[in-house]
Amino acid sequence: MKSRYEHSEKSWAEAQQFIPGGVNSPVRAFKAVGGAPVFIERAAGSKIYDVDGNEYIDYVCSWGPLILGHADKGLVDAVSRAAAHGTSFGAPTQAETQFAKRIVDAVPCIDKVRLVNSGTEANMSAIRLARAFTRKDGIVKFEGCYHGHVDALLVKAGSGGTTFGTPTSPGVPTGCSSDTVVLPFNEISEVRSVLGKMGNTIAAVIVEPVPANMGVVAPGRGYLARLRELTEAAGVLLIFDEVITGFRLGLGGAQKFYGVTPDMTTLGKVIGGGLPVGAYGGRADIMDLLSPTGGVYQAGTLSGNPIAVAAGLATLDAISEKGFYDDLERKAAELERGIKDAAARAKVQMFFSRVGSMFTIFFCDGLVRDYRSALKANTKRYGLFFHAMLDRGIYLAPSQFEAGLVSAAHTDEDIEKTAAAAAESFQAITQQ
Q: How far is CA 164 from CA 45, 184, 400, in A?
């Protein structure tokens, strides 16, 4: 009997001959859940279709950018129009200014913004700028928070590093991370202690306000506000890594959602609508240190290219429509109810962690509030559940430690089908 993934399996075998590990980003390899990854041929709305013709309701959404779903018509039209006029100029455009203004108007902490090509690049540049502004070298980050593959920040990171059990990557010189202090997320006493003792050496505290790379973990009540108070008192910059949460939890991101304004913010994912875009911004006195105004150098050949900017503007137009986020919240809440009910009926221990349209299904007993509690999750059981859902046409993140995402393209019928598939999948894994 032929496998329903026959062509994906053949494609996977070929890819491994020419691409390291067969993938261009590690988590795509399905190593955390086992089996061969499905190879996607096309997508539309809430659905993706693999090379074998299988259809899936997609909750990965390209790991965050596709808040409108796949191949949104308005976005595709905008990209097509931009491409017809040229793919890149290496010179300023009015669209870049328009895009920057939209970001500045939406995000509370941003007076000025610099466009780049990825979240990793945004975080790397923000750290450099923070060090220059404060004339200090130390950085505080948190266990399980992933800020891209920046040498200084790839220490006890989440995402693929957690999945593969490699919290620090080979190839990162000791000196690159020697100024990085790693603290547990959601433990304010640790931050108070470190800033009290080392504040005169710390340039910035960088945090995902809602970590999504050890799975989605909500900040405790008042935690972000206390981070703001402590960093301000110590003369330390506070950087919110909103690469995932920016424009995902609302137009103003997590900082508006929680009412806490950092000094700097990094963005990506949603602001590009599926094209490679990152950005970092903050107070004008900090941002004006960037070249050519100041001496901090950062450049990019394709930064602010017209195609990516067109996609970003089209996305911002769509998510600015009245009721957009209310509808997203309604659908995400309904998904949570359906999956929780299915788990309860199957008597499966599961913690559904959700903030807005971001969620993670943890196979564990009790609350997940930090990296250490996330690591208690049963990854083997998640792998069984992932494949049970995949076989039923539901595409979840192929790792326990990643976020699931609801898009505007998901329908009520999609949510109902997902809950029904979860009920069958919970029953299936209890028999294994």
A: 31, 20, 11
Alpha-carbon dihedral of residues 422, 423, 425, 431, nearest 10 degrees?
A: 150
CB-facing half-sphere around the CA of 39: CA atoms within 13 A: 17
| Model pLDDT for residues 367-383, shown as the tens digit of each residue | 999 999 999 999 999 99
* Residue 121 burial by Cβ neighbours in a 10 Å radius (0-12, 13-18, 19+): buried
Q: What's the domain range around 57?
A: 6-71+322-430
Select which of 50, 241, 263, 414 is catalytic: 241
* Residues 314 and 326 placed together within one structural domain of the fold: no
Which segments within 119-185 are labelled E, that is strand? 138-142, 180-183
5 is a catalytic site residue: no
Q: Annotate 383-401 with three-state secondary structure.
A: HHHHHHHHHCCEECCCCCC
CA 80, distance to chain mean position in Å, is: 26
Per-residue pLDDT, 166: 40
146, 223, 371, 382: the catalytic one is 146
Q: Say what the pTM is.
A: 0.94
Are 287 and 331 part of one and the same domain? no
Q: Where are the beta strands (DSSP E) in 225-337?
A: 237-242, 264-267, 278-282
Q: Which tens digit of pLDDT belongs to each residue from 82-111?
A: 999 999 999 999 999 999 999 999 999 999
β-pairing, 180-183 with 202-207?
unpaired
Indicate whether 156 pLDDT > 80. no
- Respond yes or no: is residue 269 known to be catalytic: yes
Q: Is the pLDDT of residue 416 over 80?
A: yes
Q: Of 47, 136, 141, 269, which one is the catalytic site residue?
A: 269
Quickly count: other Cβ atoms within 10 Å of residue 390's Cβ.
23
Enclosing H/E stretch for 50: strand 47-50
DSSP category for residue 305: -
Helices (H) and strands (E) in the chain, counts: 15, 14
Look at residue 132 in the predicted model and tell me its pLDDT.
98
Indicate the number of domains in the chain.
Answer: 2
User: Nearest to residue 156, comparing CAs of 303, 389, 374?
Assistant: 374
Residue 86 resides in a domain: yes
Query: Does residue 241 have an active-site annotation?
Result: yes
> 176 exposed, middle or buried (CB, 10 Å; 0-12, 13-18, 19+)?
middle
Length of the chain: 432
Task: Give the 3-state secondary structure of residue 410.
Answer: coil
